[in-house]
Q: What sequence folds into this?
């Protein structure tokens, strides 16, 4: 459902949020290793999230990535919007160009329910809530 950029971005921002709750700043290499993603690709995704003020990048030997306190309530929908736009909420479940309520594909009405559920989950889940709910073991995101 999500692009690879969005998948890596969600993993990265969740990992950074978890580390932020422990007052840790994390390096690009640590993030890419922990979320099992290519470092150069992760850097581009984090650059987008930094430009959108979701994550904060600090340069220097003690630098890295963190999330400011006032950004920990960022909803997952904001991350998805930055990385994938809103196509996930409007696209056809079969990828057809012509699919809507007037000219539905065979899955249209069932997929609308799934899309609405996904939107609800993304709009009601904050980085802080996920970080607080996670175990200290982050290896689940390496699968």
A:
């Amino acid at each position: 459902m999500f692009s690879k950029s969005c998948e890596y971005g969600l993993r990265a921002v969740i990992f950074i949020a978890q580390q932020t709750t422990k007052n840790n700043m994390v390096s690009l290499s640590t993030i890419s290793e922990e979320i099992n993603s290519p470092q150069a690709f992760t850097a581009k995704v984090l650059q987008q999230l930094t430009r959108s003020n979701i994550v904060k990048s600090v340069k220097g030997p003690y630098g890295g990535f963190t999330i400011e306190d006032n950004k920990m309530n960022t909803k997952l929908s904001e991350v998805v919007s930055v990385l994938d736009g809103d196509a996930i909420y409007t696209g056809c479940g079969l990828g057809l160009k012509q699919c809507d309520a007037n000219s539905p594909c065979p899955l249209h009405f069932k997929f609308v329910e799934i899309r609405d559920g996904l939107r609800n989950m993304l709009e009601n889940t904050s980085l802080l809530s996920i970080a607080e709910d996670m175990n200290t073991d982050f290896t689940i995101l390496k699968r």
